[in-house]
Design a protein that fits this description.
By secondary structure, the chain is mainly α. The protein contains four helices and no strands.
Length: 120
């Protein structure tokens, strides 16, 4: 498991670094489509990798379940992907000028309800 966590931590470092490079070096004025695509992709990947590490750590600390390492990893990965998708949808709504606080709550609420249905 330690090599798996090390690989996830390395991918988190690389994805956060790519997000910083996109934020600091890519100009959306010269190439708007590749800049926005790389921004959303790097936000998605960095959100997934960082939240996967945090969710793995959190699910290992929950004392009342009897899950093995594979189940913990699959649940954490699914939750991290949902969190990444919700973050990208939130940013897209903000980009189009449609984001309000209740729409943000509804976006995260939909993904939370889907996850609670799949967690059974």
């Amino acid at each position: 498991m330690t090599s798996l966590v090390f690989g996830i931590a390395l991918s988190a470092l690389l994805s956060v670094t790519s997000l910083l490079i996109v934020l600091l070096r890519v100009s959306p004025l010269t190439a708007p489509v590749p800049a926005l695509t790389s921004f959303f992709l790097s936000v998605f990947l960095s959100t997934i990798s960082v939240s996967l590490l945090l969710l793995l750590w959190a699910w290992k600390r929950v004392p009342h379940h009897t899950w093995d390492t594979g189940k913990i990893m699959s649940v954490s990965l699914r939750e991290a992907i949902f969190l990444g998708l919700a973050t990208v949808f939130l940013l897209l709504f903000h980009l189009f000028g449609l984001l309000t606080w209740w729409i943000a709550l509804m976006i995260f609420g939909v993904f939370a309800l889907v996850e609670m249905a799949l967690l059974q």
